[in-house]
Predict the 3D structure of the following.
Amino acid sequence: MPGTFKVGLLGHGTVGAAFARLLRERADAIVPITGMRPELAGVLTRSQGSFDELLEHSDLVVELMGGIEPARDYVLRAMRAGKHVVSANKQLLSQHGEELWACAREHGVQLRFEGAVAGVVPVIRVLQESLAAARVERVHGIVNGTTNYILSEMARGGLSYEAALAQAQQLGYAEADPTDDVTGRDAAAKMAIVARLAFSTPVHLDQVVYEGIEHITADDIAYARELGLSLKLVGTAERVDAGISVRVHPVFLYGGHPLASVEGPFNAVTVESDAITEVTLSGPGAGGPQTASAVLGDVVSAMIPPASTPATTEALPVVNEIESAFYLYMEVADRPGVLAQVAELLGMQGASIRSVVQKGLGENARLVLILHPLPESRFYAAVRLIGQLDFIRSAPRAIRVIDEEFT
Ligand SMILES: NC(=O)c1ccc[n+]([C@@H]2O[C@H](COP(=O)([O-])OP(=O)(O)OC[C@H]3O[C@@H](n4cnc5c(N)ncnc54)[C@H](OP(=O)(O)O)[C@@H]3O)[C@@H](O)[C@H]2O)c1
C-alpha cells in the first residue's frame, strides 16, 4: 500500500478547481512514478478553510490564489515550516522572487513555478535543467495568449483591435478586465522570471519596459503583410554590451522567425545560445486545465528529487538603450520630396531604410518604411522631427521589427 502525500491547496478558482480535479484523476498514475499517492489535504478560499490547519496537514502547498498578499505570506510560512511549494503566481514571483527563492534555499525546500510562465509549455524546466549548461544569449517569447489571439484575429479577419478584443472576451480568451494582458504587464512579469533564470541575475518586474497592443491598427498589420511581416507581442530578454535588456512590445517578425507562425491563444518561447543555436517550445499558454497540468507536473517533480532555484551569480545591469529595427507608418500629403525629407531626417540619426511602401494620392497618402537596426533613442529623435514636418497628417506610428530569421 503506497503512502499518501498530502497537498494543501490555496485557491479554488479557474486553475485551483482544475488542479483539484486533475489531482483526483491522475493520482493512481502518479503512484508508480513517486511511490506515493497524492491527495488533497484541504482547500483554502476566502470563504472556507484555515491556513494554519491546512499547513499542519500538508506535505506540500499549492498556491493558486494570485495577487501579492496574502499569497506571499502564506508561501513564506509554508517554506519556513519545511513544506515544498508550487505556485503559478507570476506577479508574486516577478516582484518577490529573490526573497522567496532565498527562503526556499535556506529551508531546503522546493519552490516550483512552471505554471507561472507560458502555461503548460515547459519553459522554466528547460531553462533551469535542460539548458543549465548553455550560456543563453537571448530569449524571445510570445507569453500572453490573449494578445496573440487578438493580433491573430486582426491579421486573419482584418478586425479592429476593439472587435478582436470583444471576440476574445466572448470566447473566454480574455478577462472582463483585460488591462494586464493588453498593456503588456502580464507578459512583462513572465519575462522578468525568464530573464532571472536565463541570466542568473536579479530582475524585478519594475525593471521591465513594456508596451501593449491597444494602439495597433488593422492598417499596420495589412501594410506590413505586404512586406512579409507578421505582428506579435513579444517579450525579449537578452545580453547587451552593458548588461541585459528585458522588454515587451509589439514587434514585426519576418516569416522565417520561429515565432512568426504562432497563432491564436498559443504561447511560444525561443531560446538562443551559441552552443545550441535556437530551441523553440510552444503550446497552449493559459487556461485552467492547461495550467493545472503544469502545476501537477511540478507537484510530481517535488515528490521525487530535491531542486531549488540557485542564488543569483551575476549582478548584471538591466539597461534600456538598445538597438532595434523599426517599422514606421506615416500619413502624409503626397507631394514631391516627401520621402527624401523623411529619409534625410532618418539619415541624420544614422538610420538606413530597408524597404518602402507608398500608397494613395493627395492628402491621404501613406508612407511605410522598414529601417535597419539603430539605437532606439536616435530613432525616436528622428521620429520627433519627422512629426513636425508640414506634410505629416497624424503622429507617425512606430513598431519594432525583429529582423532575424532562422532558416
Ligand atoms: N487562469 C489562468 O489561465 C492562469 C494561467 C496561468 C497562471 N495563472 C495564475 O494562477 C493563479 C490563480 O489564477 P485563477 O485564474 O485560478 O484565479 P481565480 O479564478 O480568481 O481564483 C482565485 C482563487 O483564490 C482564492 N483567493 C483569492 N484571494 C484569497 C485570499 N485572500 N484568501 C483566500 N483565498 C483567496 C479565491 O477565493 P474565492 O473563491 O473565495 O474568491 C479563488 O478561489 C494566479 O496567480 C494566476 O496568475 C492563471
Remarks:
- Residues 11-16, 44-47, 64-66, 70, 88-90, 115, 119, 286-288, 291 surround NAP (CB under 6 Å).
- The radius of gyration is 23 Å.
